[in-house]
Amino acid sequence: MSRERPKKGALPPAQENIEKLEKVVEEGNYYGAQQMYKSISARYVAAQRFSEAVDILQSGACNQLKHGQVTCGAELAALFVETLVKGRFPYDDETLGRVRKIYKAFPRIPMPQQLGDLDDMQQLSETLGEAKTCVEGCSSFLKSALKWSKEFGAPKGGAPEIHVMLANYIYFESPEVDMVRVSYHFVRGNNPKEFASTLVNFMGKCYPGEDDLAIARAILMYLAVGNLRDANILVDEIKKQVESKQLDFPKSNLIQFINFLLQTLLRDALPLFNMLREKYKSSLDREPTFHELLDEIAEKFYGVRRRNPLQGMGMFGEIFKRPSGDQVMGVRNMKTYPGEEHVDISRGKAEAHIGIAQLQIVEVHSPCHEQRPRMPRPDIKLQELGTRNLENPNVCHSRWHVEMAGGTMRLHHIVAFTVLAFNNGRLGHSKIPNVAAD
């Protein structure tokens, strides 16, 4: 016996269900309410009553989050965005307001101020876990909202308002602040003054030497997308806020470079731009990504095409242009893979896709076990440049330097490629953006 599709008139007004479900949540039956929110909203979607479906899901997400049910709230928030897509809701103030209400409902977890005994440490561990869950849930929701906005009328990079929400939540709620990620979203947002406030806040609690890096990174990221106006607004606003709070604005060669750079970009002065890069190279070397950002800036403001990854490599550049399958200089399994830029670790072997060339290196061991890589071939050496732990303790993130037959190939100016190695030998890979060789 076939089921008929429910008629539009068969469902009551959404408000009736919203009020009923609110009572279920108030009674503490969070799981039961969750299943009802999902099943009832699905009926409205099936009846193509999308506005009422998003009303129910928005109410459900906010109610669950208000009661501390972050996992449930995040799930309903994700369904809310899915329904925006199904109903083809446009990016406008009304829909953006709905997104903002759910965003504001995500909890803010206060961290313990003093730690004295074992109970305090246990509390800290639990609090950190709660904060991480909140950040993951809110970030996932806002990222999906960004995708919706791109498809339905927002600028190419996604709704700038949502980028600002995401940057703020990551900065203030993450147990460990990632200023690169925070800056990425602020730069794609529409509020440089709020970005300035965040940077001033960061300056008050960061380690010595991190403040000028954070400011320089923010300015260069703005300039790399061609936004000179907001870069200048950011600098001016930081100076105003620092002065009003009687703080010291960082004074370093890097900040001096930024000041000169902002003046240089106001005119057609490519030789001066290049001279500044050369003069302040040692300061820029403090963070390798600065060179990549400056390459982007040169392209945006002066039309300088980014260098081909194989240029400047001499004999190595010619090697990588040879037909696939060549055995060249003892390098095994040289193949071309246009556009591939990643590293795979599997069963003791590493395949490094560098630019358009694949270089297979054997006998790579996980640095997590304090081991060093064996010499895979007489003419290929691997040197570990550094290791840092990721969130997963079973994963290590290492940077390697590759030397081949007396020559050196580098990516990101100091790094040949990035390896994600798992202790148990399972497959892992890491994307490498903006591959460049020097």
TrEMBL record:
Record field: transmembrane? none
Single GO biological process annotation from the record = protein insertion into ER membrane
Which species expresses this protein natively? Malus domestica (Apple)
A single GO cellular-component term from the record reads:
cytosol
Q: Which family does it belong to?
A: Belongs to the GET4 family.
**What is this protein identified as?**
Golgi to ER traffic protein 4 homolog
Q: Which PANTHER family match?
A: GOLGI TO ER TRAFFIC PROTEIN 4 HOMOLOG
